[in-house]
Amino acid sequence: MSMFCYQCQEAAKGTGCEIKGVCGKTSDVANLQDLLLFVTKGVAWWSQKADEAGVINPVAEKYIIDSMFITITNANFDRNKIIAQIKKGFEVQDSLAEKLGKTPENTPECAIWRTDSEEAMEEKSTSVGVLSHKNEDIRSLKELLTYGMKGMAAYAEHAHNLGYHNAEVNAFMKKGLVATVDETLGVDELLPLVLECGKYGVEVMSLLDKANTESYGHPEITSVNLGVGKNPGILVSGHDLKDFEELLKQTEGTGIDIYTHSEMLPANYYPAFKKYKHFIGNYGNSWWAQTKEFESFNGPVLLTTNCLVPPKESYKDRVYTTGAAGFDGCTHIPERKDDQPKDFSVLIEHARKCEAPIEIETGEIVGGFAHNQVMALADKVVDAVKSGAIKKFVVMAGCDGRVSSRSYYTDFAQELPEDSVILTAGCAKYRYNKLQLGDIGGIPRILDAGQCNDSYSLAVIALKLKEVFGLDDINELPIVYNIAWYEQKAVIVLLALLSLGVKNIHLGPTLPAFLSPNVAKVLVEQFGIGSISTVEKDMAEMMA
Ligand code: SF4
Ligand code: SF3
After folding, report:
1. Is 262 in the pocket of ligand 2 (CB under 6 A)?
2. How many A from CA of 425 to the centre of ligand 2?
3. pTM for this one?
4. pLDDT tens for residues 482-503?
5. Domain shared by 125 and 71, yes or no
6. Are residues 373 and 454 in the same domain?
């Protein structure tokens, strides 16, 4: 075994990647990410001590968010970037330690360990990963908590980029990280922390919703063009709307067109972006289709976050990363400095030399059903439920992935009775968002709220319906949950739904490898979480 990682749904053999990541992460990068997490826990520990002493430390908080995000599945494969971030972690720790004076006796190893040598980092990295927790249930709960916080960090980072912060979310991340190095905590202490993580998951998604909608307006019903124009283009993937806005501004009037890919599709729904004439529409499908679609796009591609598939040599020189994303050999667009926008001129110059994209689809898809838009249609929706025209809402949010068994979700969507409506968010939608499922009295049968973080919108809609129908419990609504997961943002979405009291969520295509049998049992008993089986069986159960 040269590494161990089981944080995503595609973990090798359903148990964990031990030689190389199925995602393409090499063992040295996987181990160095473990070391980065270890150092980040040390930063969290010092930062908590600084809070207690009243020392303000925003640099440490931002460091925690960035580092956690870097270790999310399919974000950063760049060994040098990870080493640089580890070294930066030492500096952040040292500066806090200096401000606080004496190092306390009970300081954990992650807050003291230092080296300048890459060899020493590599050696240490093999002993601080997942398997350093010996007890299976403790390991499971600590990793579940960690993955929830990785998702939380990703959303906090996007909000931060727009100038929005939540001190309680940052404080929880420190508390959670410090808990993972506390050897005295048992199942009874860790389980409540995992559930508390969900509470802050709701907070962070609400923060990002506020950041996005106050900056760019509320998403509105939009027909998104799937075809291409005649100009060279830049394709933008990932989740960061600030990056998207800056690129739109810098390309205006240049003769270069802008397209979205995968999780950037919902950018098409925001009023602030629609006004740009050179914003043509969405190109392609889910993240994993990028190996084909980046090829045929012909122009440069900007990855603002995950999900990045190790690029083929044939188009690698056209792949640019920014923010938490990174890949060895791909140009990285540096961070903003002194409140100045990022400089995308290198991409723009590159695009000028490229051919226009090859058309791979034509037509349109409709989206933009985030909470504000759905509330504007509330009367129509409520009437449809009261009259029986809509019998069930099926939440099919979450992630997409490569495994062929995910065709289950296409089949499930197709087989749903005609009086049901799909509520979706995240890249899971690509399994069915181009099916012709029609509408119910003008309400489309697939309502796409947006990115995975816009699952928050689905929760807001559910809470509103509960209020309108005068129900005591969110589970009395005619809503069922058939959620697909892949990476750690889906973990925070799941924990957030649990914290809102949602029960009987079906989670697929497989349950996480990081759930020990005992932890899985608790989730089944307390929340009715279940796996998926066949479309027929699940349909019968969910539509009952
Ligand atoms: Fe394996 Fe997923 Fe970890 Fe990549 S992120 S190494 S695929 S478990
Ligand atoms: Fe997708 Fe990576 Fe999770 Fe934002 S782009 S949902 S998998």
Report:
1. yes
2. 10
3. 0.98
4. 999 999 999 999 999 999 999 9
5. yes
6. yes
Domain shared by 425 and 343, yes or no: no
Phi-psi label, residue 438: left if phi above 0, alpha if psi -120 to 50, beta otherwise: left
- DSSP assignment letter at 12: G
Instruction: Give the 3-state DSSP-derived string for 256-319, with helices as H, strands as E and coil as C.
Output: CEEEECHHHHHHHHCHHHHCCCCEEEECCCCHHHHHHHHHHHCCCEEECCCCCCCCCHHHHCCE
Please give the distance, rounded to the nearest whole angstrom, from the Cα atom of residue 382 to the centre of ligand 2: 31
Q: Is residue 372 part of a domain?
A: yes
Measured in residues, the chain has a length of 544
Q: Is 8 in the pocket of ligand 1 (CB under 6 A)?
A: yes
Residues of the chain with pLDDT under 50: none
At residue 399, the pLDDT reads 98
Shared domain check, 451 and 426: yes
pLDDT of residue 414: 98
The pLDDT score that the predictor gives to residue 148 is 98
**Ligand 2 in contact with 452 (CB < 6 A)?**
yes
Do 371 and 253 lie in one domain? The reply is no
d(CA 414, CA 338): 51
How many domains is the chain partitioned into structurally? 3
Does ligand 2 have an atom closer than 6 angstroms to the CB of 490? yes
3-state SS record for 203-225: HHHHHHHHHHHHHHCCCCCEEEE
For residue 238, how far is its CA from the centre of ligand 2 (angstroms)?
A: 8
CATH number, domain containing residue 13: 1.20.1270.20
**Six-digit token pair at 21?**
């990541």
Ligand 2 atom nearest to CA at 262:
5
Residue 79 exposed, middle or buried by CB count within 10 Å (0-12, 13-18, 19+)? middle
Q: Measured in angstroms, how far is the CA atom of residue 305 from the centroid of ligand 2?
A: 10
Cα of 264 from ligand 2 centre, angstroms: 10
Strands 319-322 and 301-303: parallel
In a shared domain, residues 339 and 444: no
Ligand 1 atom at minimal distance to the Cα of residue 22? 7
Atom from ligand 1 closest to the CA of residue 11: 8
CB of residue 305 inside a 6 A radius of ligand 2: no
Interval between CA 147 and ligand 2 midpoint (Å): 14
Does one domain contain both 321 and 417? no
Phi/psi of residue 224, each to 5°?
A: -95, 130
Identify the residue whose tokens are 């030492």: 90
Q: At what angle do helices 488-499 and 187-216 cross, to 10 degrees?
A: 100
The CATH code of the domain that includes 393 is: 3.40.50.2030
Question: Does residue 175 sit within a domain?
Answer: no
Q: What is the pLDDT of residue 102?
A: 86
* Dist. CA 15–CA 7, nearest whole Å: 10
174 belongs to a structural domain:
no
451 lines ligand 2 (CB under 6 A): yes
Q: Which domain, by its residues, includes 518?
A: 367-542
DSSP 508-536: ESS--TTS-HHHHHHHHHHH--B----HH
Residues 6+ apart with CB under 8 A from 160: 62, 65
Identify whether 148 is part of a domain: no
pLDDT at 387: 97
